[in-house]
Amino acid sequence: MNSRGFSFQWRVTRLVVCLGLILLFTFSLAWSVPQQEQEISQSLQYNVSVVLKLITVYVTDKKGNPIEDLGLEDFVVTDNGQAVKLTEFEKHTLKTTQSKDIQKEEQAMGVPARAAVPAEQAVTVQPRKFFLLFDFAFNHAKGILKARKAAQHFLEKIVRADDELSVLSYSMIKGLTVHEYLTRDHDKVRQVIDSIGSKDIAGRASEIEQNYWMMAQEPVVSSSVFSSSVSVDNRNEKAKEQNREAERQEAKRIAENYILRMTALAQALRYEPGQKHFIVFSTGIPSSMIYGNQAGNPNDLHDRHKFDAGDHVLRTKNENMYKELAAANCSIYAFDTRESARAVDLFAYDRVTFEENDRSRGMFAASGVFQDHTDVTRDEKTLGGNSLKRMTDLTGGKYFSNINFYDKNLEQVQAMTGTYYVVGYYTSEKEDGRFHEVKVEVKRPGCEVRAQSGYFNPKPFNEYTELEKKLHLFDLALNERSFSRLPVRFPMSCIGLQLIEGSGLKMIASVPDEVTSRFKGNKVEYVTLIFDEKNDIRQMRRLETDLRSYQGKEVIFNSVMPLEPGEYTCRLVIRDLDTGLSAVSSAKALVPATSKSGLKLGTPLLLQEGYDCIYLEVKFDNNRLSRLFSEIYSFDQKVFVPLVGQVSKQTRHLRVLVPFNTVEGSEAQVALAVQLIEASTGQLRPVEARLVETIKHSRGETAVLDLSLPELRPGDYFLYVNGVDRASKTQAYIQVSFSVQ
User: 48: buried, middle or exposed (CB in 10 Å: 19+, 13-18, 0-12)?
Assistant: First the structure.
């Protein structure tokens, strides 16, 4: 797989190959080359990097048992036909972690719990990546419910702590949906799986196909002249035939959409490092819809209705989907959920044999799903088993024909994916999107090797498809391991506010010039995501800006969003829309609940003396909350800037805005005092506070304080603001933190 992460606890950053002699030679010729040729040459240049490629390899014996005692010297790898020098090697086995069942048994026997493995050791460099795909278009209600049960078993019994999981679904109406992208938050994945139900099923293409071929077996009525009643029957048969053909064309359209969406997903996953294991719950696309049903004789007038050469367009697109899945290192483990996976009805054959004229053998249920009670005699060509099996064969996975045996089948998936090797080598890489064929061999006789067929060089971000850009954003927003993000952390802070009109949150980020100067495109997007305590996305905002007006300058980014009281995690993704280069930061936030009557203090906003910076803001739809925040936290942006993160230890003065209000109808008599505490020692540090002014506004008042700081040691500090209202005889306090470089 095209893996841009480094193995063995350090990461490889891209090393741009700069050959001094070549540059010198190019520079010396620059004056003699005509301008037009220079432009052509420049357009053909690629960024070349030296990167480490990590290849995941599964090795078994002839019986399918994993071989665990191989070394680096046992592997031979070629890249586009050229032998490469392997420099990195890892071996992963399931024995390194204790199963949940063994842990429960030991606890029941009174065996002391084993010491926990440190997080940095528990997480492997190349974790397994599983994609659970629930197919609603080619499925039925019982199959979906059985698939959900199998997925729950997989999560409970098979998944390890360091496995990354993603949950996807496909339906005729919604298309391909990414419910959860690759994450180690297994509780979140469990919530998604538990919500899967038959209500999500849309499309019955496989039933239409089965119905089509069942009706197609009926004799063709001759076109010779009969009585008027026969003519009516002929017209009725022709109308029925036209309806069947229209239904089948609609079924083919559904199948084509499915194939195209899966192909696009495979293409988007080309650039996701590591082997991807897809566990697909589906009945599959009926193979007769793609490859035809060539049971009849096309040269026989009375038999040609049974012959179908298939759909060339569907066949081409379907084969391309298989190739893209294999090229993107997606191994498919298909669990067939069709109704024929149930226990066989022992009387089905008798009904078919002796009651074949009984029209009750096929009927439509109340849900609109065609129920055929003769599963035991169904032609496999009109079902999806062959399609699923071919997909698994071409991608190195496995086909499981009976969903009822999911427990044993998932154990096979565990065995096939749990023991593997990772070999690595350095190679040059261009951003040209080209495919490299990789072949892996093992010198030891009797070994069967499964490995990726190759990898794709990265391509320029502006050539990404919409799905690729979406997955790229998911990766940035949900994972800490994205390779396209800058190794630069920028500070963020959040202010929660509870008002009569509602509650909300203001996020402030200080994006340094070190970040904006690295962006080279003209357009940059700022994506704000708010996660609640359950890690659900509660709010999302996006702002697209023209970078040319502020490249190389510091940016103060603001985003105001309405939120209910509670604890939240805020995340800001800044992405260059031309190059894909990104920066990400996160911060915890609290929106306070409505307090009791009396003095109420709002979250203080720290300010420091200003400098040249740019202000950007994402406002809520009606801008009401944004105006309220601006009114409550009003300051001169030409003189001050919000303090987000760290201050220099030479800083001696800060300004603090402290909102407050009291019981309605009473005249406030509020006195404020401040305390500064060093977080590491708990010591009280001297600080002087001077009230500059009190600004009245529609929601109360805001006290403006000037702080005089002593020389502070580097570290974290808590600033406490204590307030007393002499009129209502109530007290309150609030605290804010900052760091000294």
Answer: middle
Going by C-alpha positions, the residue among 473, 497, 495 that lies closest to residue 485 is 473
- Of the three residues 428, 452, 476, the one that is the final residue of a domain is 452
286, 315 Cβ separation under 8 angstroms: no
Residues 253 and 364 both lie in one domain: yes
What pLDDT, in 10s, does the model give residues 77-96? Answer: 999 999 999 999 988 886 53
Counting the structural domains of the chain, the total is 4
Q: Is residue 108 part of a domain?
A: no
Identify whether residues 698 and 716 lie together within a single domain.
yes
Is 334 a residue whose pLDDT tops 80? yes
User: In whole angstroms, how far apart are CA 715 and each of 677, 683, 689, 720?
Assistant: 11, 13, 21, 17
3-state secondary structure of 23: helix
Q: Are 257 and 208 in contact (CB under 8 A)?
A: no
Same domain, 604 and 529: no
| Span 563-568, average pLDDT | 90
Of 53, 72, 86, 64, the C-alpha closest to 444 is 72
Nearest-angstrom CA–CA distance, 389 and 628 = 61
> Is the separation of the CB atoms in 510 and 642 below 8 Å?
yes
Judgement on whether residues 438 and 492 belong to the same structural domain of the protein: no
Domain that holds residue 394: 129-418
In CATH, what number is assigned to the domain containing residue 717? Answer: 2.60.40.3880
Picking from 33-37, 227-231, 246-250, 494-498, which range would have the lowest pLDDT averaged per residue? 33-37
CB-CB neighbours of 107 under 10 Å = 11
Residue 620 lies in a domain: no
Work out the burial of residue 519: count CB atoms within 10 Å of its CB; fewer than 13 is exposed, 13-18 middle, 19 or more buried.
buried
pLDDT of residue 348: 37
